[in-house]
């Protein structure tokens, strides 16, 4: 065990009062569990993301009031659940309708809120950030749903005794014009750098074909609608193995690494100076909200469709839609 792991805790044991707090979300919403069709052939569904996005601002466009949507992959004991949580009944109806249009055999049930914790269990977790500037896109083209990789990492026999909540929050990136202008300005500065001639000690060289393709990819991302996105893990019951479980879960997201742009996910395990601050991180996940415990990056419709894809892998601990 490293000195950092000795000094900075990665988990905390829960009391009865803390369990009651974490078992219920403090933020109201509507949660829909989805039961995927077995072996469907839709790798990603970008039209679903486009259909459910709602762009809303206040104060002459300065404040972003667009609804935040939460997609979760949960393993309670050994069973897997896939669910969306939205703040309004209108958005709930949209999700049901649009997913049914894309996958006619899909079925729905009422989802669960809060975290699957019990008295005496431990809780910890981590989050993912983009390894490169988020101007560089993640991989978006797949032959099968990329979330199959995550489902396989949570099969019945992996990480025994550990409950997991993988949470993806996303909200349209509108409002806050100065922040968005700064992001776009940096994107086009990067595009200019990639396309220009590079000065060397022995002269200069033109942009390589790969640099030109990277510039095109960034320009395409900067010119389209984007979402503020956050990915977090809650790891429950793993005790001293919490940090190892976070690394194991983050490995399932390697499928999104883009060899063309060099974009990938970097892992951060929550290890604060004070152990009780881990409870704040767990509360943030239970409440499904953007706050100081999130590390946001921007994604396109296609990137988000890949991150929230409906899995198709055949696995014992997944409840499939019945015909």
Number of helices: 10
Q: For the report, how would you describe the main beta sheet?
A: 10 strands, antiparallel
CATH topology-level fold name of the largest domain: Vanillyl-alcohol Oxidase, Chain A, domain 3
Count of DSSP strands: 14
Domain DUF8128: 5-322
Protein name: DUF8128 domain-containing protein
InterPro entries: DUF8128
Region (Disordered): 202-221
How would you sum up this structure, described in words?
With 323 residues, the protein is α+β, with helices and mostly antiparallel strands. The protein folds into 2 domains: 3-173 and 225-307, 3-Layer(aba) Sandwich (Vanillyl-alcohol Oxidase, Chain A, domain 3), CATH 3.40.462; 177-224. 31% of the residues lie in helices and 24% in strands. The chain has 10 helices and 14 strands. It has helices at residues 3-7, 16-22, 46-52, 89-102, 147-153, 177-195, 209-222, 242-251, 277-287, 301-307, and strands spanning 11-13, 30-35, 57-58, 63-64, 69-76, 79-86, 107-110, 122-130, 163-172, 198-200, 203-205, 226-236, 265-269, 297-300. Strands 1, 2, 5, 6, 7, 8, 9, 12, 13 and 14 form a 10-stranded antiparallel β-sheet that branches. A hairpin with a 2-residue loop joins strand 10 and strand 11 (203-205). Residues 202-221 are annotated as: Disordered. Pfam families: DUF8128. This is DUF8128 domain-containing protein. It comes from Halorubrum vacuolatum. Residues 5-322 form the DUF8128 domain.
